[in-house]
Structure prediction request, 221 residues.
Amino acid sequence: DAGVIQSPRHEVTEMGQEVTLRCKPISGHNSLFWYRQTMMRGLELLIYFNNNVPIDDSGMPEDRFSAKMPNASFSTLKIQPSEPRDSAVYFCASRRTSGGKETQYFGPGTRLLVL
Amino acid sequence: RKEVEQDPGPFNVPEGATVAFNCTYSNSASQSFFWYRQDCRKEPKLLMSVYSSGNEDGRFTAQLNRASQYISLLIRDSKLSDSATYLCVVNNDMRFGAGTRLTVKP
Prediction:
């Protein structure tokens, strides 16, 4: 099992540029989550999907952020235009609910630095 | 009030000590509870689920107190390798607490 795969692992960009983060969940998992982690704000839930459908995007900071899940094996988080305050580690996680039990696994994260 | 609140610590304890963390939640309808561990510059990893009757896994014990709306994690005989940040997660939409930093010293 390859686990949750995220790309890129590191991204350095300039303010105003578009950033696209990618996530491949674990096969068979039916929920996908995007988180952002900073020292100041901790681990924040941005958005999550159940069966490819966005359920709660209340954590998305502003309209510059958008997320899609076109199929069960791929999701993107896009920031356009990026700003220095978007610098953080972005985690994708997927979850399988089976027999009433929920098992969530995180990807290794994407470290984003916006200059 | 935040949905999930944790004492950020840090907790600095000697090897062999017993240490406990609490996590309070605001939604009384919450059904799912978990403890995660996060090492420096790594992703969070599931440590254990928290069941209504409480559960134990080796040196780790998790408990749920619905009346007071908190979950707890107890670590007995702490090891140097237990040094990490411990995060609680409450409810179906997997919102995390801020995390409690633990350092176990020789």
